[in-house]
Design a protein that fits this description.
This protein is of the alpha/beta class and 244 residues long. The protein is built from 7 helices and 11 strands. The chain has a 7-stranded mixed beta sheet, with helices on both faces. It has a 4-stranded mixed beta sheet with strand order 6-7-10-11, with no helix packed on it. It is an enzyme of class 3 (hydrolase). InterPro entries: Class_I_gatase-like, Peptidase_S51. Keywords: Cytoplasm, Dipeptidase, Hydrolase, Protease, Serine protease.
Amino acid sequence: SPRRLLLVSNSTLHGGGYLGHCQQHIKSFLGEKVKRVLFVPYALHDRDAYARTAREKFESLGYGLDSIHESCDPVEAVRKSEAIFIGGGNTFRLLKALYDNSLIQEIRKRVLEDGIPYMGSSAGTNVATVSINTTNDMPIVYPPSLQALGLVPFNINPHYLDPDVKSTHMGETREERIRQYHEEPNTPPVLGLREGAMLLVEGDKATLQGVTGARLFLRGKKPTEHEPGTDFSFLLIDSNLQNL
């Protein structure tokens, strides 16, 4: 597979600016061959402001940025793109816009067949996976399906939060919500990416990067802890890993 993905948990890390915590990863990921990045701001309502923020950051890294919402033909914009970056916001709003603009199959083709780099942060990471079933967002709009781009055969929970032992909040923890998801049959693995973590996928190799770890959930198994540098390539082989 020629796929190249950089799936980031969050756009902003406490104490830093927009994409500041992962800007060196971005430069290493995109390299020198990519000159312009196609930005998809559909997850936020104010797309103009979002595009300005992204453009400023990518230009500071040496890359031009075109926002897909400024194109009269979004499908053609994807077909001509050198690299794609889908930003964060509301995952339901984002996925609905991808369907509304007929971009699901077009993005899949560019990434999985043509091998252009794909970067996502937060909601943009959610839609890169099998489905958005494990997003943290409210369903403020109704996409035609929860099935997403399927660039990897598992799900991710960005902004994964560990239980606060001092908290008196009695609602479900993130871990409990993911366990509820896995109570449904044939549900794929879920990788809980803490803020500051990201997953680099190059072909059939997947590596955890960043400054924080991740928590892996397999249906019917106890969750496991993983540090940066962990090889998650086995997740790319088969989404039905319940027998591990």
